[in-house]
Every structure is written in C-alpha cells, then in structure tokens.
C-alpha cells in the first residue's frame, strides 16, 4: 500500500489491484526529474464488477478520459451515480482515500501519478500556497493538449522523451495549481499523517488475520482512542474498523487473483470467520461472490 512508485512494476501492481487485467498501453516513469509517471490503459470489454480504486498514499492521481465511459460510482457498496463520462474530461484524486466504480463500456484512460512532494515544491514558490483539487470530471483543452503531448513524446522528442515529459508535467501542474486550486487550509495540530499514518497502516496490514484494536493503534500514535478515531477518519475517510475490513477485502481479492488456495484458507488468512463470511462480505463490496470472481479471472 505504501510502496513508493520507483519503477514500472509498482505501477503495474497498482493497476492489477485496481482491476485492470489487460496489458497497459503506455507506462512511462518515474520521470527523471519530477518523478511523476504516465500510464494509459485501454479495454474493449465492459467490466460490471465493482472495482476499488485506492489512491497512492504519496501521490496525486490525475485521471483523464480519452473516450466516453459508461460508469457507475459506488459508495460503501451502494450505487450513488451512473451515466456516461464524456471524452476529454479529467479529475484530480488526492493522496489516500479510495473510490469504487463499475464500467459498462470500453475505455481509454490516462492516469498521471504525481508525487505530493512535487506539488509541495511548486507550492513553495507561490506567494499564496494552494490546495490542488478537481473532484468532478472537468473539460479543459489546455490540460488535454499537454497530456496528448506527453503521450506523443516519443515522436516529438525521440530519445529525450523523458526530459520532454518532465517539462510538460511541470507545465501541467503549474497550470492546474493556478486554475484548479483553492487557498490551502491552515495546518491543524495533532493530525494523523506522514510517518504515524504509515506506521498505523503497516501494523493493520500485518495483522489482518487477527485484527487490531483501536487502543493498540492509538498507542502507536500516542493518542487517546477517541482522538485517534477522529483523526483516522479525517485522514482516510473511514473509521478504523471499516478501513481494516477494506484492507481485508483487498487482500482477499489479491489472493483470489493469485489462485491456488482454498476459499477457507483465504478467509482465515484475511481475518474472516469462515468462507461463508468472506463470500457474503466480498459479494456486498465487489458485487460478485469470490468463487465467481475467481472463475471470471481464470483462477
């Protein structure tokens, strides 16, 4: 979860865990200077299964739709929006947090992974620091022009394509900060983030089978239980127990994709009472039972 994006294999693993099982059309990065990455993926087939898209904890993700996508957005296992996202629309997803969607059409999507440190460095050069954000899909011809230049960097810059993309990436981020930002909120004291948040998530991930108590997690941060729960919810959008369940489900999905293990073993390894508990919870979260999920993925 907290692995730095320092090679293309990390990117491929993120897409696999996000339900992308076709070869990536383009996978560039990390770029030499900005350390940003550019990935384009396409699919000719719909995927009605509910997929969980988890933002990388150290990176902004900018999603750009190159063609219309018929999609459904889910929240806590319930559909909250449905329709067609038009072509040449983009949105900015901040570090951490997650979303769920199902795709009822083909797609052609670009994802840019941008280190939060790069945004911070650009912000430091501004007179007034800004908070980057565009949660709704938005149309902007300047954004599309810069993205298409990066996708065509090989033809435009030849062996210097990485350096060319670095320049385009900084130009894009400078534009987004100017036009898709709001004044940064005043820093809050005692927020859960950085090393403490990574320590908590690592501890949770290492104890999926047995579970962890709020008391133990709060102790890792030197907080009271109530304070820890509030700060955790603020940082990740879910209370600790629900985020732990999310981690268990994602681990179960990863093990199902790997194949070779009985359902009961997967349930035990991920902290479910038994295979039936895993099946009910998995179906509610992903829209299909685990056995059917494994069958569809050829495992």
UniProtKB/TrEMBL annotation:
<dbReference type="GO" id="GO:0043565">
    <property type="term" value="F:sequence-specific DNA binding"/>
</dbReference>
<dbReference type="InterPro" id="IPR050204">
    <property type="entry name" value="AraC_XylS_family_regulators"/>
</dbReference>
<dbReference type="InterPro" id="IPR018060">
    <property type="entry name" value="HTH_AraC"/>
</dbReference>
<feature type="domain" description="HTH araC/xylS-type">
    <location>
        <begin position="198"/>
        <end position="296"/>
    </location>
</feature>
<dbReference type="InterPro" id="IPR018062">
    <property type="entry name" value="HTH_AraC-typ_CS"/>
</dbReference>
<dbReference type="InterPro" id="IPR009057">
    <property type="entry name" value="Homeodomain-like_sf"/>
</dbReference>
<dbReference type="Pfam" id="PF12833">
    <property type="entry name" value="HTH_18"/>
</dbReference>
<protein>
    <submittedName>
        <fullName>Helix-turn-helix domain-containing protein</fullName>
    </submittedName>
</protein>
<dbReference type="GO" id="GO:0003700">
    <property type="term" value="F:DNA-binding transcription factor activity"/>
</dbReference>
<keyword id="KW-0805">Transcription regulation</keyword>
<keyword id="KW-0238">DNA-binding</keyword>
<keyword id="KW-0804">Transcription</keyword>
């Amino acid at each position: 979860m907290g692995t730095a994006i320092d090679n293309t294999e990390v990117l491929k693993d993120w897409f696999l865990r996000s339900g992308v099982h076709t070869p990536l059309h383009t996978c560039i990065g990390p770029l030499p200077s900005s350390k940003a990455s550019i990935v384009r993926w396409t699919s000719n087939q719909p995927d009605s299964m509910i997929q969980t898209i988890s933002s990388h904890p150290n990176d902004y993700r900018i999603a750009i739709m190159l063609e219309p996508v018929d999609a459904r957005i889910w929240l806590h296992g319930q559909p909250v929006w449905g329709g067609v996202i038009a072509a040449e629309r983009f949105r900015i997803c901040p570090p951490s947090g997650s979303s769920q969607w199902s795709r009822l059409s083909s797609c052609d999507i670009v994802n840019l992974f941008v280190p939060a440190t790069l945004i911070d460095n650009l912000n430091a050069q501004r007179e007034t620091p800004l908070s980057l954000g565009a949660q709704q899909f938005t149309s902007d011809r300047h954004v599309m022009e810069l993205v298409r230049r990066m996708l065509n960097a090989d033809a435009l810059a030849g062996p210097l394509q990485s350096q060319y993309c670095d320049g385009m990436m900084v130009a894009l981020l400078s534009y987004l900060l100017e036009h898709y930002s709001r004044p940064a909120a005043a820093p809050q004291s005692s927020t859960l983030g950085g090393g403490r948040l990574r320590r908590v998530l690592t501890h949770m991930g290492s104890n999926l089978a047995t579970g962890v108590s709020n008391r133990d997690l709060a102790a890792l941060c030197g907080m009271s239980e109530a304070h820890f729960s509030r700060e955790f919810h603020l940082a990740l959008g879910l209370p600790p127990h629900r985020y732990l369940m999310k981690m268990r489900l994602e681990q179960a999905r990863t093990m199902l994709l790997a194949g070779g293990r009985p359902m009961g073993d997967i349930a035990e390894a991920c902290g479910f009472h038994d295979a039936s508990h895993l099946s009910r919870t998995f179906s509610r979260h992903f829209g299909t039972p685990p056995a059917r999920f494994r069958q569809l993925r050829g495992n």
